[in-house]
Amino acid sequence: MKILFSDDAYEKVRPFFTEDTVGIIDLDDGIGPFSNELLENGLKYQLIIIKKKQLPDSYNILFGSSLGDFYVNADTFRYLETNLKISLNLKWDTMALKANSGLLENNLTLLSLV
């Protein structure tokens, strides 16, 4: 399982990654430890950067990437596919999360907790 970054998205996210950080792809649904609002009418994804030591045990499904390791939990994984791509819309400076089946999130939030 892997996440591919477009060159522009890679450059946007790269400054947040160090040897002691990992990424999380999570639903912003009001349920998980990184979600602040309840969204009952649809799925909204977010990309979170945290220290490795902060990674909750429930985030145990690994996606590799050229930036480093990304983790998801089982609740989020059921809505994802095994190959993901993150790209950057240069006009709006927003990121999109895509899968083989199509667009999953057109405004992927980047949240650094380091």
TrEMBL record:
List the Gene3D superfamilies hit by this protein, alphabetically: HesB-like domain
Q: Which InterPro entries match?
A: ATAP_core_dom, HesB-like_dom_sf
Give the signal peptide range: none
User: Which residues does the UniProt record annotate as the domain Core?
Assistant: 1-110
Name the domain of life. Answer: Bacteria
Name recorded for this polypeptide: Core domain-containing protein
* Protein's organism: Pediococcus claussenii (strain ATCC BAA-344 / DSM 14800 / JCM 18046 / KCTC 3811 / LMG 21948 / P06)
What phylogenetic lineage does the species belong to? Bacteria, Bacillati, Bacillota, Bacilli, Lactobacillales
